[in-house]
Amino acid sequence: MQRFVTEEMDTTDAYKLLSGLVVPRPIGWIGTRSNGGVNNLAPFSFFNAVAASPPTVIFAPTGQPAARKDTLANVRETEMFSVNIVTHSLGPAMNASSGTYPADVDEFEVAGLAVREAELIDAPMVADAPANFECRLMQIVDIGGAPMGSSVVFGEIVAFHVDETLLDGTRVDQVALDPIGRHAGNMYSRANQLYEMPRPD
Ligand SMILES: Cc1cc2nc3c(=O)[nH]c(=O)nc-3n(C[C@H](O)[C@H](O)[C@H](O)COP(=O)(O)O)c2cc1C
């Protein structure tokens, strides 16, 4: 085993180990709207569900505090955002939305995506995604500093939207959902080799 002591590593190598080993990561495709009314959409794979009551997600813009990420600026301003689930067929649009565009550019337009409005909050959602969450900001926890600090955004899901063809009550058809996961660099996986493993009593 090769051992790496974090204190002796540069941040890029630590990032490479982390993003190559914590895989596959789910992707939170985050929709926000600036106070000036510009829609924004970007993917984050430092993303997960962390509580069920209240239902809570986190995502983390990195490169903080230096990198301007419109998503983080909008969430700080408006305290709301949507999460959109990325399927295999939406992969190219998700990728297109990840480019570094100026704040006045609407990534829904760049990626050719239609908007569906959230109802309890003021944020755009990806109309073609099979599921969207309407989220209100709970808190932002800043971790570390330049060049690779993170601002971890905690959001409470106040409404779920789910394509009814995927649902049996509130059970979601895992095969039909066809989500993708993020691996190191530009690698992705498709969750289409599912198997069951019953838990011990
Ligand atoms: C699959 C994928 C996952 C990403 N995950 C993150 C992430 O967790 N944190 C981050 O800061 N940037 C991440 N990025 C890069 C952002 O999407 C990119 O910086 C984007 O331009 C930010 O947009 P914004 O300025 O509109 O917020 C990811 C990109 C891709 C393609």
**Element string (H = helix, E = strand):** HEEEEHEHHEEEEEEHEE
Rg is 17 Å
CATH class: Mainly Beta
In total, how many beta strands?
13
| Biggest pleated sheet | 7 strands, antiparallel
Helix/strand/pairing category: alpha+beta
Rounded average pLDDT:
97
- Uncertain regions: pLDDT < 50 for 5+ in a row? none
Structure write-up:
This protein is an alpha+beta fold and 201 residues long. The chain has a single domain (26-182), classed as Pnp Oxidase, Chain A. The chain contains five helices and 13 strands. Strands 2-1-5-8-9-4-3 form a seven-stranded antiparallel beta sheet, covered by helices on one side. Strands 6-7 form a two-stranded antiparallel sheet. Strands 10-11 form a two-stranded antiparallel sheet. The mean pLDDT is 97. The structure holds flavin mononucleotide. Residues 27, 40, 42-46, 60-63, 69-71, 95, 98, 100, 182 line the site of flavin mononucleotide.
List keywords for this structure.
201 residues, alpha+beta, Pnp Oxidase, Chain A, seven-stranded antiparallel sheet, two-stranded antiparallel sheet, binds flavin mononucleotide
Outline:
The model has no long low-confidence stretch (mean pLDDT 97). This protein has helices spanning 11-21, 70-78, 91-96, 107-110, 174-177; strands spanning 28-33, 39-44, 47-52, 55-59, 80-85, 115-117, 124-126, 131-143, 150-162, 167-168, 171-172, 180-182, 188-190. The longest helix is centred in the N-terminal third of the chain and has 11 residues, at 11-21.
